Amino acid sequence: MDAENLQAAPMSNGEAEVSGAWQSLDEIRRHHDAHWIDDVIAESRIKTVFQPIVSVQDGTAHVQGYEFLSRALETDGTLIPPYKMFEAARLRDRLFALDRVCRMSAVRNAAVVQEKLVFVNFIPTAIYSPEHCLQTTLAEARATGVDPRNFVFEVVETDKVDSVEHLENILLYYRKHGFRYALDDVGQGYSTLEMVERLKPDFVKLDMHYVQGVAQDVAKQKAALDLLHTARAVGSRPLAEGIETVEDWRWLVEAGYELFQGYLFGRPEHEPQEVSLAL
Q: Please, are residues 53 and 66 in contact by the beta-carbon 8 Å criterion?
């Protein structure tokens, strides 16, 4: 709703009553200033970029898949930072619509990486009913011809999930249709080892806070090993994200981590890139 169309009664304390709820004038202005995200969603102005996920074979990094990340586009084609587009979507109450547009864009691009893993982010709080909200996503995934097991739907923003049962229903829906799923940022917020044990994801990502500097930090080493042991116990593949140095990578490889992601191997790029890096 644009500011000029708000039916609001100005108050002496700088607030207004909008749709039965009190909002400050600053909140109203921020809501109006974020209206550009409505056009991004309506026009599907979303660009998918690709960040490699690697394993180690014979001491060398080999690409196993890519995380498909979304960037909104200005009308002139320049990229909008992801935090900005999701902040605007929350202000406009368009999070579900933006999440869907990003998810669909990623899925439609899956065939460009051929037989490799396709990690696609989704926000669980934006999905109120998997049967209703995910039908089109799954249909598009099948239409690509990519093996469903190569799709890995990655839970982001776990800390905002009010109902773990609801999240379980979403993940079981994915798995029932042959897809796999990952839990992101494990070790931070509500993405705990207990969540890993309960949700039994196919992949678990160690949060970068525990990755960066792990080669020298005993506390981070303990956290990394705790997740590794939990992942193995529930049959999940452990993935360390945010790797920027060879030293941290080497420590994680020797500890037993299987998959790796971070600027050391490549930043998000407009086209999937190969990786040539020796341990």
A: yes
